[in-house]
Amino acid sequence: MRFDYDIIVVGGGHAGCEAATAAARLGAQTLLVSMDMTKYASMSCNPAVGGVAKGQIVREIDALGGQMGIITDLSTIQFRMLNRSKGAAMWSPRAQCDKAHFSALWRQTLENTANLKLWQDSVCQLIIDNQEGRRVVSGVVTRMGVTFRAKAVILTAGTFLGGLMHIGRNSAEGGRAGDSASHGLTEQLVELGFEAGRMKTGTPVRIDCRSLDLTKFERQDGDEEPQKFSFLKKIQPVENQRPCYLVYTSKEVHDTLRTGFNDSPLFQGLIKGIGPRYCPSIEDKLRTFADKEFHQLFLEPEGADTNEYYLNGFSSSLPWQVQCAALEQIEGFENVDIYRPGYAIEYDYFPPTQLTHTLETKLVESLYFAGQINGTTGYEEAAAQGLMAGINAVRKLRGEGSVVLSRNEAYIGVLIDDLVTKGVDEPYRMFTSRAEYRILLRQDNADVRLTPLGREIGLVDNERWENFEQKKSLAESLKNFVYAYGVAPSEISDYLNSVNSAQLSQKKKLSEVVIRNNVSLFELIDHISALKKFIAANNIDREVIEQVEIEVKYSGYIEREKATAEKLQRLEEIKIPAGFDFQRITSITIEARQKLCRIQPTTIGQASRIPGVSPADINVLLIYFGR
Ligand SMILES: Cc1cc2nc3c(=O)[nH]c(=O)nc-3n(C[C@H](O)[C@H](O)[C@H](O)COP(=O)(O)OP(=O)(O)OC[C@H]3O[C@@H](n4cnc5c(N)ncnc54)[C@H](O)[C@@H]3O)c2cc1C
After folding, report:
1. Residue 419 DSSP one-character state
2. 4-201+347-457 under CATH 3.40.50.300, yes or no
3. If you classify domain 206-344 with CATH, what class do you get?
4. What is the mean pLDDT of residues 426-454?
5. Whole-angstrom Cα distance, residue 62 to residue 66?
6. Most buried one in 309, 377, 464, 573, CB count within 10 A?
């Protein structure tokens, strides 16, 4: 039994699992300590991965060599590419997953990762040494009284620190339904000087679908040609998809829910933590949109072999009797049986401005925070932070440079930069609107953006690298074909008619046709025999065709966005020395000085994104730092 590690990861949620596998795969002797080994990467809420902007993050995790994309694909029971009707920058993959299988696959992955050991226990204390005036973490102590030593610790305790669950006026301690809360760490960290806060989130009722009349609902099937998250070729899209259903509330349902408002922990002030505005409970929705006569809900299966369904949109902490009575008034729910009611949970988090871009804390060296404890919400946001913390913890041990993704490189870069630079005032989830360079940060090109970096870091193995190189070369050759081939008007006149596009008056390059609205490269394959032959001869698959189509169609926008990104990148290159005392610059506002001192930006670019630092302040900094 080993008690001395390079890295200890505390918490086996989405952040912890990615952090532990990344560190171990990079060769670090790693220990993952988690409270319950049967619940690795448990989906505390919705049994789904991806969605708008979150789907892009999962593709990025996969492109870098992380695990979430693969495990999602292997446990998918329904796949949909959201926002297909919008521009390619908005296309977002989303998978409904078999929740139990997802967790079991994670356990299998963890158990089969070399250099990784697992320990089931609760960490109640961090060991912090004082090394020449610097505070450095050197291990953990568990509830069972075991001491493990390590050179770095990654804390990923999710919703468990000081977790308090609410249903009506009842409240109980817990990290989520069925799990104990974790105590001791917040208190210790606050004593060390960390600032902590409280946040809140909630989850809906779980239902036995045999008690419902499914014929009363609108069925929602997955995509006819489902895709997947992982860029690995051996991973195949889901075959037997499960349907979801659309359900609507009514005025009667709302009236019944309102009878519980006097016992609502949210409205009666029992819940003090800040909740997510964009993911409101049903009672919140009734208050905010008082005139709305109905709300849409999604009934989603929790797995392939279970009758448990999740009622998306009906998150609530009203008394369980009120939740049941309201459900019975929904058409098709008259005889509803529930497995458990919805509830809300409050937990401790640490404002993430206390971290550097590597997710290392500024107060204690080699201590990293990742996931929900940084004020984020969502499995994908957590997994992305875990991956980056795992990578950076190992690199620091080896004296290698840190890996910080920029805002024009990845949504993960946007996520971490937002957290450490701007902080959070409510649970942070990713939206496409948070990214300045959406057309560069697409789901289809996550591999082009990040797989070479993943290879350099050491997480992209030979198989992934070969897949990548092959795809890249096929995409290049197809692109060359599209830019070189001249289409005769007669070849596509029927097709152009069918999509209401003007006829060609003379031969035109295929790229000039693809660029048109309503025209699709996929559909052209059936009309241009040379294109069909080229694709068949080179065995080019759908992913490659899609990527080429997007790059050709949006080439103008892509080039423009690249140019803007490059211009702004120059500000990122102007470094600010570590520990610089901004109070010395008296020509900037007091507010800017205070904020700069607190955040300690490392570049002028980062300084420019701190709320309260104005363009005028940045001009002064530019002069000061030599430009
Ligand atoms: C009731 C509820 C509702 C939610 N609703 C939503 C939602 O609507 N939308 C959304 O995007 N997200 C929601 N979430 C959040 C989502 O579950 C998290 O964002 C995600 O799971 C965070 O991942 P994580 O790895 O940071 O932490 P978690 O998944 O919470 O994992 C934490 C892990 O740490 C372990 N742990 C904790 N403390 C210790 C300790 N001291 N020692 C050892 N191990 C420890 C736990 O056992 C667990 O394995 C909800 C969560 C809950 C509980």
Report:
1. I
2. no
3. mainly beta
4. 95
5. 5
6. 309
Q: Is the minimum distance from the CB of 14 to ligand 1 under 6 angstroms?
A: yes
Domain extents in the chain: 4-201+347-457, 206-344, 462-558, 574-624
Kindly indicate the confidence band of residue 627, based on its pLDDT and cuts at 50, 70 and 90: low
Whether 540 shows a pLDDT value over 90: the answer reads yes
Contact predicate 363/188, CB 8 Å: no
Read off the pLDDT of each residue in 441-446 and give the average, rounded to a whole number: 96
Mutate to test the pocket of ligand 1, among 156, 180, 311, 415 (most ligand atoms within 8 A of CB): 156
Position 47 scores a pLDDT of 95
Protein residue with least CA distance to atom 10, ligand 1: 378
What is the number of the ligand 1 atom nearest to the C-alpha of 122? 42
Which two structure tokens, joined as six digits, stand for 185? 């760490």
Query: Can you give the pLDDT at residue 279?
Result: 82
Mean pLDDT of all residues in 430-443: 93
Calpha distance 394→359 (Å, rounded) = 12
User: Topology of domain 462-558, per CATH?
Assistant: Arc Repressor Mutant, subunit A (1.10.10)
Tell which CATH architecture fits domain 574-624: Orthogonal Bundle (1.10)
User: Separation of 122 CA from ligand 1 center, angstroms?
Assistant: 14
HSE-up of residue 24 (Cα within 13 Å, Cβ side): 22
Q: Is the CB of 103 under 6 A from ligand 1?
A: no
What residues have CB less than 8 Å from 217, skipping those under 6 apart? 245, 246, 247, 299, 332
**Which pLDDT band holds residue 87 (cuts at 50, 70, 90)?**
confident
Q: Which residues contact 179 (CB under 8 A, 6 or more apart)?
A: 35, 36, 39, 160, 163
Ligand 1 and 17: CB distance under 6 A? no
Q: Bridge partners of 149?
A: 4, 139
| pLDDT tens digits, one per residue of 475-512 | 999 999 999 999 999 999 999 999 999 999 999 999 99
**Ligand 1 atom closest to Cα of 54?**
11
Answer for the pair 527, 492: CB distance below 8 angstroms, yes or no: yes
With a 6 A CB cut-off, is 383 part of the ligand 1 pocket? no
For ligand 1, atom 21, which residue shows the shortest CA distance?
379
Q: From the CB of residue 526, how many other CB atoms can be counted at a distance below 10 Å? A: 10
